[in-house]
Design a protein that fits this description.
It contains 3 helices and 7 strands. The chain is extended, with a radius of gyration of 26 Å. By secondary structure, it is of the alpha+beta class. Strand 2 and strand 3 form a beta hairpin. The longest helix has 11 residues.
């Protein structure tokens, strides 16, 4: 039977010193990385406009071309919809946010639903009313 003599904590790991029949054993353990369920993953797709990552070229002064990505400016924002009487968190690009501020959330969602650019999980909310 081993007795734990000292337990030293580090930010990402811990070290334990075990005493077992006159021997000192050092054990170094690293914790298993677990995904945070509250962490939002960025898909780089706007749920309203359907904007996604574009590819293009980075052009140097010597006209050398290398591939690059143009990411949309996606922001997670919580909006209140009085028609649905609910708070909705949307990953939307800043252009869609400006449209929401101008026309209102429900009108913007209806217009995107008719246009066909609305994401399926958000389209279920609009189809209810």
């Amino acid at each position: 039977m081993a007795n734990i003599g000292l337990l030293l904590y580090a930010p990402k790991a811990f070290t334990a010193i075990l005493f077992c029949k006159g021997y000192i054993i050092y054990v170094y353990c690293t914790p298993i990385q677990q995904n945070n369920p509250n962490q939002k993953t960025m898909a780089n797709i706007c749920k309203i406009t359907g904007k996604r990552v574009l590819t293009g070229n980075r052009v140097s002064k010597a006209n050398n071309k290398t591939k690059r990505k143009f990411n949309p400016n996606i922001q997670h924002k919580k909006h209140f919809c009085p028609e649905l009487n609910a708070w909705i968190t949307l990953p939307a690009c800043t252009k869609a946010m400006r449209t929401i501020n101008k026309n209102g959330l429900y009108q913007t969602l209806k217009k995107a639903f008719k246009k066909g650019t609305l994401a399926p999980d958000i389209a279920r909310l609009v189809a209810v009313i």
